[in-house]
Please model this.
Amino acid sequence: MEEIPKPDPLPPLRVGLTYNLKNNVVSDVFDNEAEYDSIETVLAIKGALEDQNCRVILLEATEDLPEKLKNRPVDIVFNIAEGIQGRGREAQVPAILNFFRIPFTGSDETTLCVALDKALTKRVLSTYRIKTPRYRVIPKDGRTPGGGFSLPAIVKPNAEGSSKGISDVAIASDIHELRGLIAKNISVYQQDMLVEEYIDGREFTVGIVGNGGDARVFPPMEIIYINSQDRYRIYSYTVKQNYKQLIRYECPAALSREAEDKIISTARKIYSILQCRDFARIDFRLANDGQLYFIEINPLPGLAPGYSDFPMIAEFNGMDYVSLVRCVLHSALRRHGLYFYG
Ligand SMILES: Nc1ncnc2c1ncn2[C@@H]1O[C@H](COP(=O)(O)OP(=O)(O)OP(=O)(O)O)[C@@H](O)[C@H]1O
Ligand SMILES: [Mg+2]
Model:
């Protein structure tokens, strides 16, 4: 009998990896490059993709990215690029990829633009009755807030992540402190400031992978401050840098079934409202009176192994780094109809 020839094996998937590296620029601003990635993170993702037989093409998201994309054809891009500058910087690479009709992992430019503007996100989510701390935006060339604002308040740059601009002295207890903090932060970060009512209570961050009905919401991870003597507990840049000494994480957090369900269903709702894709991380505070507050969302969450919250959440839930990268990639492949790989 004639033997049916075996189909040729699929060629390896060509995955472009877009990223922006820390440049180690000397700066007076201690957290100047907080959001950018280290080469170790890029290589960890590259290794995880190669573990799945992908051929990885490193594409640093510099000004010549369009030329690089034209010269190096890829099937899909795994995007962790933070962009170059401006309020919409996280959207820059997804917009270029969409322009060239190249599929990519993660949320699109519109979601990333909205989410990087904390106040805009709060406005959008408020229309869906998601509770978020009361706030004011102080324009960088504007005045400090007048009366009627409840103190203590936290002051944060309106369009940053990685706790950039959130030092251990980000909380103001009176109007003089508030004015000083706003003026100092505007001069350092040159952008609008978000002044938000300080929510005293427990802090949780929630990771989500996947899309639509298949999206998996991991149980909330609690950030527990070891030194509970501190008056205000904030997950500041310094705390993140020294997390092993200052905090411990608990995942799943010790929560009543009702509180856990509330956090998970709110996270799922926010993910859907903002049309997030493939993965995201959402921060919440549960006030002492039981009210749940949305703090902010990261649709491009950090993936630094051994440092970023997202890989930690996955690890707590039995998903190692390689599996996490695979899960994000495969969510995107399925979404783009590349089923034979996904
Ligand atoms: N309204 C608030 N009340 C109490 N604490 C807050 C509030 N807003 C922020 N914080 C504290 O400051 C931390 C950093 O704030 P936020 O998550 O908004 O910044 P970020 O830089 O975008 O964070 P990420 O590193 O997750 O991107 C929070 O994790 C929380 O500990
Ligand atoms: Mg945060």
Q: What stands out?
A: Residues 257-273 form the longest helix (17 residues). The mean pLDDT is 90. The chain has eleven helices and 13 strands. Residues 133, 154, 156, 160-164, 166, 196, 198-199, 203, 234-235, 283, 285, 295-296, 298 surround adenosine-5'-triphosphate (ligand 1) (CB under 6 Å).
